[in-house]
Amino acid sequence: MYKPDSxxxxxxxxxxxxxxxxxxxxxxxxxxxxxxxxxxxxxxDGMTVEGWVAPRAFEWGDxxxxxxxxxxQDKAAHRGFSLGVxxxxxxxxxxxxxxxxxxxxxxxxxxxxxxxxxxxxxxFAPGEGAIRLYLNGEQVARTTIPTNARMAKADVPMxxxxxxxxxxxxxxxxxNMFNGLIDEVKVHTGPLTAASVAASHQQDLRTFSGxxxxxxxxxxxxxxxxGDRYRPGYHFTAPNHWMNEPHAPIQVNGKYHLxxxxxxxxxxxxxxxxxxxxxxxxxxxxxLPVALAPTADSVAPDGVWSxxxxxxxxxxxxxxxxxxxxxxxxxxxxxxxxxxxxxxPDLVExxxxxxxxxxxxxxxxxxxxxxxxxxxxxxxxxxxxxxxxFQLMGSGxxxxxxxxxxxxxxxxxxxxxxxxxxxxxxxVGDVAAHPKTGQVWELPTFLPIGxxxxxxxxxxxxxxxxxxxGPGEYSSKYVYYWVGTWDAQARRWTPDTTEPKLMDYGDHxxxxxxxxxxxxxxxxxxxAQDRRTERAHYDAGWAHNAGLPIELSMxxxxxxxxxxxxxxxxLHTGAPxxxxxxPTSVNDANTRLAGVGGDMLHIKLxxxxxxxxxFGLDVLRSPGDEERTRLFYDAPAGQxxxxxxxxxxxxxxxxxxxxxxxxxxxxxxxxxxxxxxDRSMIEAYANSHKSITTRAYPFRQDSLGLRLFGEGSVIKxxxxxxxxxxxx
Length: 728
Hints:
By secondary structure, the protein is mainly beta. It is built from three helices and 50 strands. The longest helix is centred in the N-terminal third of the chain and has 13 residues, at 194-206.
């Protein structure tokens, strides 16, 4: 609803695709076809339902219900019928007779394959006492029913693509819906014979080029969001639907690969796999097919959660992921995957290793009088030094009586990536002294930032706090870090201080991941929480995006410095909209800014404090100042902040957007800001030391202006560029 209306997702007609040309793509959460009960007249003594389907992915199967392909059912009342597909592609058919519900599922050998067309037929034939199922014209299942069975019609609509009685999650999303292509749905008023089903399939085959079933064309199309005023254009987003943290970045043969947590069914967290994109410059990205998905009889049947990547002893990339398996406790462990074809420059296909490589045990030694927080064990981070690979796993530490002590990163070592030896906690937090650092650490990221005067390797440890014991108000808001020295031989990390430091003051920068590229840069990716309501996610059709990739450095005082990668300048479009290179007063600069604005901009600004107490920049400002987001520096307090009290709140989950701020020391009295506006996204990097990542959802269409404030301060320089798209 935040964009102009557009047509349903019909595939372009192609003659070679025969009867499947122009199929309808069901998006998995908001697309279905319905016909009123009064418009359907079905026989009770036999019927056949057939259709061509190409699932894009498979749902979780909440409450044991399949994703409906076509149904007109009230299963609780034993009425109607349903053809649908369950977890991992196992499809089924059911019929209600009023006093019973007869159901049959295909064996695993006849399960559907994601991304492939298949012709399904389900025959209800009480005259012969059977229900028969056919896949591509061949019978794959049969069950016996009474010969006097008669279908009892359900007084509900006939629906294609959506369950008549779906499970509702998050109070908003109807699941048990089909995700993928459907075409040629037919409901016959009688039971077809095996010969008739086979003949129907052969007839369809003859319409295809070479009599071969065509490719299922259902790549996610970003253009469906064209015109969305809040969806970022140059920050990395999933092509459709839900993403949370990007992870496992790796550079292979000059290309950067990025993976991310993705639900291809809709803009909500559920049934998570690994999305995949590739880039040659870190700022322009090309979408690739899903790399890993929950798969039957694998180490990850219930979720493929965050992880990392590295190169094996032959220089071949390897993915290590959190394998979700709800039949085990903990339901989290480390799995491994390798490319099916390492010579493929896009590394499209991946195959999971058949066994887990790291599992949590309750007796891990985390110190005297302590125990590991059993059940929390996720987000491997992997790197290699010499002949040894190191792995960090996010977890927590408790007293033996169960009191939370703090989050931890558990350290493992390996000589071959599949056999790992536990080495102990790298570090343990103190949640009592620092409540916002969480009972559990997720996504531990451990990157080199240079060597100190003594030649010791310095690193930064970044963690994403998690709060399984509460409070929820702290969740998904912070990334804390420590800087210190790392001795790989001794397996010893010595932080400069146990005091945690906050990277970003905006409450939206979370989920770090990192890699070292061929330029020797330590790069970090993050997820920028959008903090919208579930209803807004439903209405928008997408959720969350990544922050810009940043480069870590070591400041002269030894602290962590960071700023966006230099490649962001490749997104500049045309000449600068404004370029001030001589010292200028605030008033004169604002006169020159009067005609400059937009919501996809890069602003480079250096302000000298002068006599001003508080100074900075307003962005996304309406002409009358009714709406604006204020980036400010409070000199007396020595704090950098963002004031969102007038930002507008068209879809945020927070009623009071408030003010967020934190300490920052000026550099010779100067504040240098790198500000990136990307529709709802605002990122500001201050003096290459701290950042603010935040969101704004203005109501007004004219909230596009820029304005400086802080009488007595001096604008030493200011340049404004228009930015292009990540997909250009």
